[in-house]
Amino acid sequence: MRRPLNLPSDREAQGRTLGEEELALLEEVIRSGKLNATGGVMVPRFEEEFARLQGLPHAVALSSGSAAVHTALAALDLEPGDEVVTSPVTDMGALAPILWQGALPVFCDLDPDTLEMTGPALKARITPRTRAVVVTHLFGHPCPMDEILEAAGSIPVVEDCAQAPLASWKGRLVGTFGKLAAYSFQQGKHITCGEGGIVLTSDPHLARRARLFANKGWPYGEPSPDHEFLAMNFRMTELQGAVLLGQIPKLEEVVRLRRERARLMDELLQGVTGVRPPLRPKEGEHSYWKYTLRVDPEVVPGGAGALGRILKENGLPAAPHYVGKPAFELRVFRERRTLGRSRWPWKGARPGPEPPPEDPKDFPGTYQGLKRALVLPWNERYTTRDVEDMAALVREAVERLEAAGKE
After folding, report:
1. What is the pTM assigned to this prediction?
2. Which residues lie closer than 8 Å to 274 by C-beta, 6 or more apart?
3. Which of 72, 232, 246, 311 lies at a CB distance of 3.0 to 4.6 Å from 180, suitable for a disulfide?
4. Stretch (H or E) spanning 86
5. Residue 304 pLDDT more than 90?
6. Which residues are catalytically annotated?
7. Coil, strand, or helix at residue 309?
8. Topology of domain 251-322+367-406, per CATH?
9. What H or E segment, with its residue span, contains residue 157?
10. CATH for the stretch 13-250
11. Residue 351: how many CB atoms within 10 A of its CB?
12. Domain map of the chain by residue range?
């Protein structure tokens, strides 16, 4: 095998676009002494800029991506026992808010090639109790939003765009289809302030509820304020807002470079037996948070697991099977470990018997997709040489596994 790779990492400065712009804005905040967003200017400026970039009128900046999903769901004012259809392949930060709001997550089977929701799969999971749908644009690949909206009908759709800023579907940016959209600015996202999030919407009523929820239910600046409903403190700080205000002008170039490098990787992997690059959307644009190979275990001995081990040994961090298993197999869902021994909200949030756990037989696409997925890191700081070395390493690793399988 070739020498180990030494790739830029989004955990370090070499793999981030942080620089003098962010430092200057941070200094401005520190010198002002106003670190709280309720009296500052950075967070409102960032909200305005991000909303403008997405072409939506309302934005509420938040302390994390998890807080963004939670705030979006809270804005919908769900009742205990309501059902929310969602993806079984996503971060816990997009799932825990459903439970905290007293709603029941209903998991949807996924397309094995994209690990994303489709219209027909969503329609099969909707019941008279369904009150919301959370759609995850995984890895930066846009979901087929026209068929999802058709399947949802009048049920509000929340778009989880944490991994997909500036991805698009049929000429329209993701995040502009649903009632609300949630984004993340965690360390490894396209732009970052370490942690952070934002909710976007075109609905002024939902925007007000989202802002109230992020501020403990208190309507700052309105006459006769009062705590209007049970809510959290999810405010973004001025320090976070300053970093993001410096980051946002860089986002379009970050996505452009990621796409450019991905096209090169796609070309270099042509002809590698049993390995396919990420599926390109036929009617949209990928924004490549990660670069996900689809490895056929019937062709590549040992499949994604074996290939991933060799890549890691040679300096290419790879995550076989991504999250490893569907969310409904995680302990919090499998054993319904929430508030003490209550099993809330599955038990007690609505009349009638506790609903049964998800049946794995209902998720053939999800299991097939996870079995074949091998997630590679992706970064706008990769050079052409980096991508060439990565592709060569994948090719050589597959050849090594094939040779071992013939012995």
Report:
1. 0.96
2. 295, 296, 298, 299, 300, 398
3. 72
4. strand 83-86
5. yes
6. 189
7. helix
8. Aspartate Aminotransferase, domain 1 (3.90.1150)
9. strand 157-160
10. 3.40.640.10
11. 6
12. 13-250, 251-322+367-406
